[in-house]
Every structure is written in structure tokens, then in C-alpha cells.
Amino acid sequence: MIAMKRTRDLTVPELTLNPTAYQEMAAIIARFATEDVEYATPIEGLYFNRRSSPTQPIHTAQWPCFALVLQGAKSLRLGDEHYRYGVGDYLVVSLDLPVVSRVTEASRGTPHLGLGMAINADRLKDVMSRVRLNRSPATSDDVRGVAVNKASADLLGASLRLLRLLDTPDDIPAMAPLIEQEILYRLLTGPVGPSLLQIAITETPSNRIASAIAWLKENYMRPLRIEELAERVAMSMSSFHHHFKAVTAMTPMQYQKRLRLHEARRLMLIERLDVGAAGYTVGYQSPSQFSREYSRLYGLPPLRDVGATREAIAAK
Q1: CB of 259 within 8 A of CB of 222?
Q2: Which residue of 8, 45, 70, 285 pairs with 118 in a disulfide if CB–CB is 3.0 to 4.6 A?
Q3: What is the pTM of this model?
Q4: Does residue 218 sit in helix, strand or coil?
Q5: What are the beta bridge partners of residue 61?
Q6: What are phi and psi of 169, to 5 degrees?
Q7: pLDDT digits over 78-134, tens only?
């Protein structure tokens, strides 16, 4: 039997904010992000992204964030699930996840433009402590660590005001934290609220999975014993497996494998380790197993993939 990949597509309704607001946000991003790079703004945790052509799939370890597309379109893959989002759609990643993203619509005349805001766990909990939120039992969709939705007028308005601060830098220290709180409030009271709540509230299964993920990030190079990790977060083996896949769309072993391979690729590209050293550093004892699993994820053996990536970077 052939396993079918799940694809989550958005049916995009009419924009809920005057299109000129999108144009203003896109214009602000274009003024600051003048090249095809990720631009770190003077506002802590706020980033802009610009791409003038569709990209190849980019494998990355994504931290919790709120991302909004103002021009063009993107896609993201988590496990075997695909998420597609365009102008006015927003993405929320609620915990650290290995994902594959790519820009799907962009050109020199109309580049992809987007913003990303890091979600700070302490600030999120602070907002949660000051508002009354619906804490009804979560559904399977509520606990997934990735979600795409249409941005409300209130969320877009707050995002626009945050971007406008870049033109009045003296206002950033006082006003940016307040607007960030409003954005977090809009997320918590919107469709992704239940997911963020499940991750943040202590003693929920999703919160325990977040603790397991934090441990895996620090110990990905060690042999993985599922029963020990389940015990560490006070869950039964069956419950741990079920909830881990519900949150991450992959098994604990698959999650660890992605972390190892992402880090190995970084070590080869940035630190210039050779293939054998990179594989051993991230926990592989068998070079052939490392090469086989690397090829399965990235589509090429390690040496060829790293060489092709360096050539592509040098050609830009």
C-alpha cells in the first residue's frame, strides 16, 4: 500500500484589511531588505525576508515564530505535511521543529517579501497570565506545532504599527514591547491560540512533548532510548509516541534523525568538516548509514550536496 502524504492547503478568503496596508508593509520591508537575505531589524526578534526568485527547499531547525507574507508565496513541510501560504496568510510555529521551507512565488519585479517575529516563551506566558482564554480540551489539529491561517484585521494592524516603528527608532524601546504583546494577544485569541496554550501550559501532554524536544535538541548526538525519554517527561511509552507525533508530525526517532542531519550539513558547509567527521560528531557510528540517511533527506550524497550548495552560494 502506498502511503499518501497529507497536504494542508488554504482556501484564502477576501483580505480583511485595506490592500494599501499590505502595500505599506511590503514597501517598508523592501526599503530595509534590499537584497535576497534574511534581514535582522533594529527591533529585537523581528526579521524580514526577501527573495527575487523561487528557491530550492531549505532544511532548517525552526524556532517558535509568527511569520506573515506580504508579497509572493511560500510553502513549508513538516514531516509529510505540506502548508502553503501567501499574501495576508500567517504561519505560527509553536515549538522548535525541523522543517523544509521554500519560496514558491517571487520575481525580480515582484519579490517575495515577508516578516518573522520570534515568539518569546516568557513574554507569551506573561500575556497569558493577564487575559482570560478558552482552555477547552484540544483537538488533534490544536496540538500540531505548525499552523497557517488568514490574518485578521487586528493582527495585521498591530503588525503594521510594529513595522512603522522602524521609521521612528527612538520609539522602539518603549513601543515595540507593547505592540509585541498585542500581537501575542491576537495570536492567543485567534485560531492558533489552543496550540500555543497547549505548549505553554504546564502538565499538558503538549508541554511535556516540548520538554522532550528541548532535551533532544541538547542531546541529539546520544543514542535515543524512547522509554527513558518518556519516563523523563512522566509519560507512558504509548502516550509519549502518540502525543509526540500529534505535535511534530514525526516520531521521536525521525525527529532526532532530522536534528542530526541538519547539524551535520551545517558542520560541513560552515565549519568545513569532512563527511566522516561530521557524521561521527552528530552521533553516527556507521559512515554508510550516515551517507544513506543523508541522501534520503537531501536527495544527494553528503559530498555532492555540499559541493552543489557551495557552488550555488558562490554564483549569487
Answers
A1: no
A2: 45
A3: 0.85
A4: helix
A5: 98
A6: -60, -25
A7: 988 999 999 989 999 999 999 999 999 999 999 999 999 999 988 998 998 888 776
Q: What Rg, from alpha-carbon coordinates, does the chain have?
A: 20
Q: Which among 144, 158, 227 is positioned nearest to 192, based on CA atoms?
A: 144
Classify 258 as helix, strand or coil: helix
Identify the H or E element spanning 154.
helix 153-164
| Residue 200 CA from chain centroid, whole number | 17
CA distance linking residue 266 with residue 264, whole number of Å: 5
User: In what order do the strands lie in the sheet containing 58-62?
Assistant: 7-8, 81-86, 73-78, 97-105, 58-62
3-state SS assignment for residue 115 = strand
What cell does 182 get? 498585542
DSSP state of 61: E
Q: Rounded to an integer, what distance in angstroms lies between the CA atom of residue 50 and that of residue 36?
A: 5
